[in-house]
Specification:
CATH architecture: 3-Layer(aba) Sandwich
CATH superfamily: Gcn5-related N-acetyltransferase (GNAT)
Number of strands: 5
Distance between the termini: 35 Å
CATH class: Alpha Beta
Structural class: alpha+beta
Helix content: 25-40%
Shape: globular
Amino acid sequence: MAENIIVRKANQEDLDGILTLLNRPEADNGQALQGHDANTIYQSILEDSNYFQIVASSEQGLTGTLTLVIIVQISHEGSSSALITDMICMDNDDEIAVELLKYATKLAEEYGCFKTVVHCDYQQEMTASACEKLGFKASTDCFVLS
């Protein structure tokens, strides 16, 4: 693991650090939510048992984050799927990205997910590198309307 990096589920105190990461030009172009809106949305994330904000932290503060959503399905014999999105790391550090993905995929396995999909608009080269290191396969089965 990256030196002195701890990966864990985010808590209430992590919001400012997450917003700092999302305010970076390669993320939300300095347009991350602020104030009441950010607090309201973040609280709903923390209260949702199938929605996780995962963070990597060091002595200097948060160094990366991603979102994991567990999608409960009636298909696939009631199995769940996992969606990992919005991963961003300081300095495009794919070592931190790998650790974030390891944590998220382990959590998805604990929830019985039969499939985990990674889709990130940010730092795509870093994300692709980290996914390849963990054995994810590229897929063209995805269509995106944005």
